[in-house]
Write a structure and sequence with these properties.
The protein has 11 helices and 6 strands. With about 300 residues, it is of the alpha/beta class. The protein has 2 domains: about 100 residues, lambda repressor-like DNA-binding domains (434 Repressor (Amino-terminal Domain), Orthogonal Bundle); about 160 residues.
C-alpha cells in the first residue's frame, strides 16, 4: 500500500471506532456516571427516516414519546413515595444501586426517560416495589358482543339518518335493568314505537318466542305511557342475521315462523330505513341483516327482506 495512504486509512478506522453505537454495558456505565442527561446525545439518538436529509417524526413516534414521558414521571413519583415511606434518603438509595445521588433525584423528578431498564429494575427492588412491565389490553380486541353491537349500531344510524329517535337497550321496566329492547325507535309522525330485537344466532326458538312476547307486552305498556293523551302504538320485528345456520332454521320451521311473523319483511326493511315509508308495519316481521362491521354499519344495504 502506498505510504501516503496509510495515515488516511488509520484516521478513518479511528473515526469508525468512535462513531459506533455504544453497547449495553457502555451505555449503562456512561449513564450511571452521569455522562448523559435525561435524553441521549444528538449523535446517539434514534431518528426516524425522513426525506431530503431531514428527520420527520411520525404520529406514532410523537404519541410514543409523550406516553414514555408520562410513564417516566409516574415511575419517578412512585419511587420517591416508596423511598420516603421507608425513611430512606436519596443518597442511601443511590448507594444501594450504585448511582450518583443527582441521577436518582432526576429519576424521581421524572427525568429518567433515558435510564436503562437495569437501573429502573434496581430502583424498584431497592425500595421494595419490584418493577412490573407488561403490555396493556390489545386495542384491536373485539368485545364479546361485537357482532350484536354492530347490528344495533346499524339500526341506530339508520334511524338517525331518517330523523327518528332511537334508543340503545331501551329499558321496558326501569326498576329491572335486565329487561330491555335491543333498539327502540320512536316514530313521532306515526305515533309508533318500533321494537327491534336482534338475533345473531337462534339456539332455542321456543324460548326466543316467549321472550319476544314478554318484550312486546312491556313495550305496549311503555308506548301507552309515553304517548300521553295520544298513546303510541307498538309493533316489533326480529332482525335475524343472514347466516347459513339461521337460514336453515327458517327453512326447517316455515309454518311456525309465519304464524308469529305475519308482517311483510319488505315493509319492515322500508320502515327501518325510511321515515317516509307508509304505512308502518301492523304485524311483526322477520327481516334479515348481513354481517355488519363498524365500517359498513351505516348502510341500508345491510338490511334485506
Amino acid at each position: 500500500m502506498c505510504p501516503q495512504i496509510l495515515p488516511a486509512v488509520g484516521y478513518l478506522a479511528q473515526r469508525s471506532r468512535k462513531s459506533r453505537w455504544p453497547g449495553a454495558a457502555e451505555r449503562d456505565r456512561d449513564w450511571s456516571a452521569g455522562l448523559y442527561g435525561s435524553k441521549w446525545p444528538a449523535s446517539r439518538r434514534f431518528h426516524t427516516v425522513g426525506r431530503m436529509g431531514t428527520d420527520k417524526r411520525t404520529q406514532v413516534a410523537i404519541t410514543g414519546a409523550r406516553e414514555a414521558q408520562r410513564l417516566a414521571a409516574t415511575l419517578g413519583g412512585e419511587i420517591r413515595a416508596a423511598r420516603r415511606r421507608r425513611q430512606m434518603t436519596i443518597g442511601e438509595l443511590a448507594d444501594r444501586i450504585g448511582l450518583h445521588q443527582a441521577r436518582v433525584g432526576a429519576i424521581e423528578r421524572g427525568g429518567g426517560l433515558g435510564a436503562p431498564l437495569r437501573v429502573c429494575v434496581s430502583l424498584g427492588v431497592a425500595v421494595g416495589r419490584p418493577l412490573a412491565i407488561g403490555l396493556s389490553r390489545d386495542t384491536f380486541d373485539r368485545l364479546t358482543d361485537a357482532g350484536h353491537l354492530a347490528v344495533q349500531e346499524l339500526v341506530l344510524r339508520l334511524a338517525r339518518a331518517s330523523g327518528r329517535h332511537a334508543t340503545f337497550e331501551l329499558p321496558t321496566r326501569p326498576a329491572d335493568p335486565s329487561r330491555s329492547i335491543d333498539v327502540g325507535i320512536r316514530d313521532d309522525v306515526r305515533r309508533a314505537l318500533l321494537v327491534v330485537e336482534i338475533w345473531n344466532r337462534l339456539d332455542d326458538l321456543g324460548a326466543a318466542m316467549r321472550r319476544f312476547d314478554r318484550t312486546m307486552a312491556e313495550a305496549a305498556a311503555l308506548a301507552v305511557a309515553s304517548g300521553g293523551d295520544e298513546p303510541f302504538a307498538s309493533t316489533g320485528c326480529w332482525l335475524l342475521r343472514d347466516s347459513a345456520a339461521n337460514r336453515a332454521i327458517v327453512a326447517r320451521y316455515p309454518a311456525i315462523l309465519r304464524s308469529r311473523f305475519k308482517g311483510s319483511s319488505v315493509g319492515w326493511v322500508r320502515a327501518l330505513t325510511s321515515a317516509h315509508a307508509a304505512p308502518r308495519p301492523a304485524s311483526s316481521g322477520l327481516p334479515r341483516t348481513r354481517r355488519a362491521s363498524s365500517r359498513s354499519a351505516g348502510g341500508a344495504s345491510n338490511l334485506q327482506p
